[in-house]
Amino acid sequence: MLQEIGSLTRDLHDSLTQFNFDERINVIANDEIPDARDRLQYVIDKTEVAANKTMDAVDRCMPIATNLHECLLQVRPQWNELMHGRIELVTFKALCHRIDGLLVQVEGDSTELRGQLTEILMAQDFQDLTGQIISKVITLVNEVEGRLVEILTVFGANQIEPTPETDKKSSIAPEGPIMNPEAREDAVASQDEVDDLLSSLGF
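Request: output the structure for the sequence above.
Response:
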């Protein structure tokens, strides 16, 4: 029994040591996760800016389109008379002036609409970059998931099969973490001391 407990303790200690000094995990925790958080915040900010630019451009386009539609409706009756040959000379002259004014208006409004549509298009240029950022974050999440699975596998491999004796509650309450190991002679203060202790016992 003592041999089994010692071997189990050694395996668990080695697993913990390997876990604590896994440089890749340290890099992920200290660098890549904070960096991923900043990158996602960047995506959120860029998306918000693009959405605001798009909405502003649409808001500027709507009155222009509405005004053009109303002007065309005003010209349509006289134009219909002309097409059916029932227009008088005075009305025809008035129609010509109105169409001339409409052409000038359409020229200016179409330039404005083209500018606003370009603004909308340019506001979408963030998508390629943010798509790359999101892909990198997804890759990081997948790697973290794989690391967690490895950790669970390591700890799962060191679990003791339950027995009737281990299922019984101990009459002695567990002590828990050693809060002041330097003040106690019976406490092991570091991973190195654990390793030395196991080695001295032949494990």
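Helices lie at 2-20, 23-83, 89-123, 126-157, 164-167, 191-200.
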